[in-house]
């Protein structure tokens, strides 16, 4: 995953004339930002799954074994 991919994509689309400045560029910016947030959501979901299985295995938050 590249951190700066959305910014570079916006610049490339404008530089090659694929997207015109103005409303179209704003729409592209919104879509690329939303796409970047899907990576964040996937990372959070993966972390939560990892924590769930760690809890189920008793790696933390388990019962005392006195």
Task: Describe what this molecule looks like in 3D.
- The protein is built from 2 helices and no strands.
- The protein is mainly alpha-helical and 66 residues long.
- α1 packs antiparallel against α2.
**Percent strand:** under 5%
Strands, count:
0
Shape verdict: rod-shaped
Distance between the termini: 46 Å
Helices, by number, come to 2
Structural key phrases:
rod-shaped; 66 residues; single chain; mainly alpha
Brief summary of the model shown:
The chain is mainly α and 66 residues long. The chain has helices spanning 5-15, 23-56.
Please specify the SSE layout and strand pairing.
Layout: H1 5-15, H2 23-56
């Amino acid at each position: 995953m590249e951190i700066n991919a959305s910014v570079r994509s916006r610049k490339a689309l404008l530089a090659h004339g694929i997207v015109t400045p103005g409303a179209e560029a704003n729409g592209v910016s919104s879509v690329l930002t939303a796409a970047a947030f899907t990576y964040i959501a996937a990372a959070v979901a993966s972390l939560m799954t990892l924590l769930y299985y760690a809890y189920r295995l008793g790696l933390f938050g388990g019962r005392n074994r006195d």
